[in-house]
Amino acid sequence: MTQSIIQPPQARQEPTPTTLHGQTLEDNYRWMRDKSSPEVLAHLEAENAYTLSVMAGTEGLQKKLYDEMLSHIKETDVSAPYRNRGWFYYVRTVEGKQYPIHCRRLALGAAYDESQPEEILLDVNQLAEGQPFMALGALTVSMDDTKLAYSTDNTGFRQYTLHIRDLKTGLDLPDTAERVGSIAWAADSHTLLYTTEDEMTKRHDRLFRHRLGDSSESDVLIYEEKDERFNLGVGKTRDNEYLLMEAGSHTTSECRFLSAKTPEGEFRMIAPRVDEQEYSVDHRKGLFYIRTNDAGKNFRVVTTRVETPERDFWEELIPLEADAPLEDFDVFDSFCVCSRRRLGLPTLTVIEFGMAKGLGRSREIEFPEPVYAAATNMNPEFATEKLRYSYTSLVSPASVYEYDVRLGTSQLLKQQEVPGTSILLAMLQSESGLRLQTGLRFRYLLSIDATRLLETRLILSMFMGMALMDIRFRSVSVRRGCRCWIEVW
């Protein structure tokens, strides 16, 4: 039976010129930016009606697909707790609820104690009640552990509002601000720094200082970024000694610092921006540790004293490696971590600090499988002998490990449970007769020209949904009938 399908709605065109960099562009649909316009709302309703018309008769299939996807999600779950000062923090989810619940328990010792009473910091399900949309942005606890600064978007337009919660009472304070981006507490737990976005461009361009109890209208504008290529952000060093204000474009960055103990002081420049040069900063025992690409695109690490942060005083600590980009660098009290990529695979190298300014013993964390994804995880504590990292592969679900820096051993803390999942083994026969034994996590048929396999070790990349998937051939032979593994993740 042929179903009647209504015609798709056609939005009217109203050319609106915009001149940028001497070029005039015309946007035929700029009028649709007004989300409160009755005409825009009517058009969206017409689009929804058209969708329902086209999809009529598929309701049963839609429910089947939804139920299938939901069956592979463990709805009631809890993350691996991580320690920050005197608390263990974690996130849990509950079956039937759409949003996470952020919690903590008191840390009486080195190990997480589940018998301690749970304190709910933020139940996003409660925030979402009566709202058309809800998303959580920034989330940070004050240094005295009694206040929570967080931001929420109830519009779906990435427009976040700042809130501050008194963790003793569980109630939000009247302090608030609009269009907020990044947030950082000063050491006094009474002063908060935050960035805001431009209403039209949504570029984060201003940094404000707020004192608890003051209205947002009296907040002090600390800095405004005039260059439209740059976004502004605020954060802290891992040891909580310094506030960092970073301006960054796609290829260039610049950082200023200020003691977290004197938030009303003036930020000082580390190194002025230079086109095509990026750097990021952390601090340890009077030294700034700077990851920078000033000497080459693969980045190196330099140090400099806080008193003399300028480029002229930079001293190389970890040199650039031509075949292994330094993608990240983490500094702790007694060790540092280099996150590199070698032959396309991530590596984590833990280097202990020596007695002087130099480096001591170096170890690369070993991973159990030849193809995987790994990265450092939540590591807020500066004085620690443990490193959290995440790991996953074709045969290993998303996992969180804790690495003991002194012993050089890893302990599994949490592995994501995926109900009903099994690895699908498929045998594909190519036109040339090569038998390809493949382990596929996803049920997709791959059509491969096997003659190309005889020429080179082939790496394919594809997007499936939102995940980038690499397909690696572990062995290739010119003999007909041989097997090679195709690993997909």
Tell me what the structure shows.
β12 (180-185) and β13 (191-197) form a beta hairpin. The chain contains three helices and 36 strands. The chain has helices spanning 38-54, 59-70, 124-128; strands at residues 16-20, 23-27, 77-78, 82-84, 87-93, 101-106, 119-123, 135-141, 147-153, 161-166, 171-178, 180-185, 191-197, 204-211, 220-224, 231-236, 242-248, 253-259, 268-271, 279-284, 287-292, 300-305, 315-318, 326-331, 335-342, 345-353, 359-364, 373-376, 386-392, 399-404, 409-415, 424-429, 435-440, 459-464, 467-473, 485-488. The longest helix is centred in the N-terminal third of the chain and has 17 residues, at 38-54. Residues 422-489 have low confidence and may be disordered. It has 489 residues and is mainly beta. Strands 3, 4, 5, 6 and 7 form a five-stranded antiparallel β-sheet that branches. It has a five-stranded mixed β-sheet with strand order 32-33-36-35-34, with no helix packed on it. It is 7% helix and 44% strand. The protein is globular and about 80 Å long. It starts with 15 loop residues before the first strand and ends with a strand.
Oligomer: single chain
Radius of gyration over all CA atoms, rounded: 26 Å
Terminal CA distance: 41 Å
- How many strands, what sense, and barrel or not for the largest sheet? 5 strands, antiparallel
Helix fraction bin: under 10%
Number of helices: 3
Helix and strand composition category: mainly beta
Average of pLDDT: 87
Name the beta content range: 35-45%
What's the β-strand tally?
Answer: 36
Q: Quick one: overall form?
A: globular
- Which consecutive residue ranges, at least 5 long each, have pLDDT under 50? 422-489
